[in-house]
């Protein structure tokens, strides 16, 4: 059976798929293979994880998490999902600062593409990484830790430097969150974008570029009944207004642990309509948010026919070379498209064209047509660690200009 990504729009071309059960087996496999790449949980929407050689899935490697409560750190196996990791941390009174909308994604795959949640003060998931353990091209092991010169190139690295075997993550004390959905945000309220996005620990706007709802994840109760002219949702909501909300984390302001509120989707359910979508996301400097959003509302009629829903989030800057948030506080404008690539592509191109004046960067794990330039220091790091390009694929070759 052909192995595909979650959405089924990429069929992996690997000649073999391997599931090593130990570090030694993985090292031998990587050393012997002329072309190899790791696959996480396969949730990216493009061919970033593909290879024509050997695809390595680390789902049978030892999966113990080493938690150091005193240092507030955890060393996590690369293929572990956030869904599995989060309750283990919570049981020890610890938490991740943030999570993505879906907890089913692997830690290594998520940080490799710059995956993020929302929150003015919270950077992407990769910024929580303080050390990366890798198997490099000749089968040797390498640890790069925060403070090492090459570390900022090794976290959001698109699988191009080697196979990551574990990641050490910064933790915070466990905390409670209340999730509210507010409906009927008027486009006039965009003038208050900064205040709206600052009014929760994690805030998302969901819009079809006509009607807009706000998902507010707060550590405190929301008491204002007519918050920014909106009304409270009278029942739990799915990000897609027509879908049932049974796959969604608990809303209506009921307090609960961080990992049961920060993701939009529950770990024990796939989102409704799982896989029946394509996604794109463009990440802009935060200061352009309102102007850029107004441009998109103005072309909403062109976007809507191929759109399921858009989500707008804010993300704090980091210093990771390939991160879409490198050096700038950002706004992420996300598009969940219908699963019709030929219909979506011209609209995606229109969106990219519209946002070009605002210097957008693409989400590495989603669909895009305009490639950003590759930082020279990342190119040098790839040449140093993988001189024969065994971890390279079509995706990284375009990025590296090969
Ligand atoms: C329903 C859905 C919701 C999503 N929600 C969000 C969201 O809220 N926020 C967001 O930012 N993104 C989101 N995404 C995108 C998703 O987070 C990214 O595509 C992410 O990369 C998925 O992780 P993965 O483990 O599936 O990675 P994969 O797609 O399997 O791989 C991604 C990259 O990581 C590399 N990789 C994986 N494992 C390793 C390893 N061990 N060593 C070296 N390289 C490795 C692969 O080679 C590839 O280059 C969503 C996707 C879906 C399908």
Overview of this structure, please?
This protein has 10 helices and 20 strands. It has 402 residues and is an alpha+beta fold. Strands 7, 12, 13, 14, 15, 16, 17, 18, 19 and 20 form a 10-stranded mixed beta sheet that branches. A hairpin with a 4-residue loop joins strand 13 (202-207) and strand 14 (212-218). The relative contact order is 0.15. It binds flavin-adenine dinucleotide. Residues 6, 37-44, 48-49, 58, 78, 100-102, 105-106, 108-110, 112-113, 115-116, 158-159, 163-164, 271, 363, 365 line the site of flavin-adenine dinucleotide.
Describe, in short, the structure shown.
With 402 residues, the protein is of the alpha+beta class.
> What portion of residues is helical?
10-25%
Ligands, deduplicated: flavin-adenine dinucleotide
What is the rounded distance between the termini? 32 Å
Low-confidence stretches: none
Number of helices: 10
Structural class: alpha+beta
Question: Roughly how many Å is the radius of gyration?
Answer: 20 Å
Features:
402 residues, alpha+beta, 10-stranded mixed β-sheet, 5-stranded antiparallel β-sheet, 10 helices, 20 strands, 26% strand, globular, binds flavin-adenine dinucleotide
Fold topology:
Layout: E1 16-18, H1 23-32, E2 36-39, E3 54-57, E4 66-68, E5 73-77, H2 82-91, E6 94-95, H3 107-113, E7 119-123, E8 129-135, E9 141-145, H4 151-154, E10 163-170, E11 172-173, E12 176-185, H5 193-197, E13 202-207, E14 212-218, E15 231-232, E16 256-257, E17 278-285, H6 289-298, H7 300-303, E18 307-316, E19 330-337, H8 341-355, E20 361-362, H9 376-385, H10 394-400
The structure holds flavin-adenine dinucleotide (FAD).
The site of flavin-adenine dinucleotide has 32 residues, from strand 2, helix 3 and strand 10.
């Amino acid at each position: 059976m052909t192995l595909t990504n979650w959405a089924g729009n990429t069929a992996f071309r690997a000649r073999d798929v391997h599931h090593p059960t130990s570090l030694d087996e993985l090292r031998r496999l990587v050393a012997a293979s002329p072309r190899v790449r790791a696959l996480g949980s396969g949730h990216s929407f493009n061919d970033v994880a593909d290879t024509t050689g050997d695809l390595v899935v680390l789902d049978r490697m030892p999966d113990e998490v080493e938690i150091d409560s005193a240092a507030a750190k955890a060393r996590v196996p690369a293929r572990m999902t956030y869904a599995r990791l989060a309750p283990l941390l919570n049981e020890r009174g610890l938490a991740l600062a943030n999570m993505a909308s879906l907890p089913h994604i692997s830690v290594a795959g998520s940080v490799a593409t710059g995956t993020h949640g929302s929150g003015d003060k919270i950077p992407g998931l990769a910024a929580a990484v303080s050390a990366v353990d890798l198997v490099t091209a000749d089968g040797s092991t390498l640890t790069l830790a925060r403070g090492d010169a090459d570390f900022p190139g090794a976290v959001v690295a698109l699988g191009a430097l080697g196979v990551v075997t574990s990641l050490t993550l910064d933790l915070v004390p466990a905390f409670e969150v209340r999730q509210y959905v507010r409906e009927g945000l008027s486009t006039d309220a965009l003038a208050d974008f900064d205040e709206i996005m600052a009014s929760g620990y994690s805030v998302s706007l969901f819009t079809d570029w006509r009607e807009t709802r706000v998902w507010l994840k707060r550590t405190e109760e929301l008491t204002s009944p007519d918050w920014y002219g909106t009304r409270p949702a009278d029942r739990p909501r799915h990000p897609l207004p027509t879908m049932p909300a049974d796959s969604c984390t608990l809303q209506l302001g009921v307090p609960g642990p961080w990992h049961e509120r920060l993701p939009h989707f529950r770990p024990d359910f796939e989102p409704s309509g799982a896989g029946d979508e394509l996604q794109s996301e463009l990440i802009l400097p935060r200061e352009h948010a309102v102007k850029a959003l107004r441009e998109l509302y103005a072309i909403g009629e062109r976007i809507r026919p191929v759109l399921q829903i858009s989500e707008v989030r804010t993300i704090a800057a980091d210093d990771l070379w390939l991160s879409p948030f490198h050096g700038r506080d950002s706004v992420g404008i996300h598009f969940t498209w219908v699963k019709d690539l030929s219909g979506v592509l011209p609209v995606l191109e229109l969106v990219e064209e519209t946002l070009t004046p605002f210097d957008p960067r693409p989400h590495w794990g989603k669909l895009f047509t305009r490639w950003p330039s590759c930082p020279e220091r990342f190119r040098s790091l790839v040449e140093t660690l993988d001189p024969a390009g065994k971890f390279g694929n079509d995706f990284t070759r375009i990025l590296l200009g090969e």
